Structure prediction request, 228 residues.
Amino acid sequence: MMKVIVIVGLLAALLIGDLFAGTLQPDAETQKKLTPESVLKDLMAGNERYTKGELSDPNVKARVEKAVEGQFPKAYILSCVDSRVPVEQVFDQSIGDIFVGRVAGNVEGTDQLGSIEFATKVAGVKLVMVLGHEACGAVKGACDHVKLGNLTDLLAEITPAVESVEGHEDRSSKNKEFVDDVIEANVRKTVADLRERSEVLAGLEKEGAVKIVGAIYSLHDGSVTLLD
Ligand SMILES: [Zn+2]
Prediction:
């Protein structure tokens, strides 16, 4: 009887240990085992937990301590700055899990490109996701040709996406369908630009080490939809 109790106790300890280990960030060993597909699956499963309001325990204290050893993240998410899109939470990720690059309108720009090249080539990230979102103010501004200080140059980076969308009579931000189409076109354009403007990224994707995907976040239900 004693033996059974000891074995059950040991099994429980192993299981609990495993559960806690599951909420820690990747280390060099676990990062090596990741593939672009497994990371994408992991992020989308996290988004499902987010939409259900079932975020996992981020285990902050243990993660902070472990972070001193280095970083071996899984993905780079290029997102808009919108306060309604809390990127780590959206994918139920925490300290040491993902790089997040944010700029209004999720356009690449040289600074983002350099950051993504570092994240993939140097820090070993397997997945790059360009994440646009519903009702994006930057995209709306580009649709309306807003001029404001340095924002003018930033919005100019979205203008090609605005111009690429056809078939709408009302081409202002008042037309939600038009804005939705531009948001999608803008994500697709950023994904294409990443491949075109970065030999590093294009090379990594070609050899299967990295995958670049586009996605849209819904403000209505918090879900992320991948673009094919
Ligand atoms: Zn936005």
Q: What stands out?
A: The beta strands are 75-79, 98-102, 127-133, 211-217, 224-227. The first helix runs from residue 2 to 22. DSSP finds eleven helices and five strands in the chain.
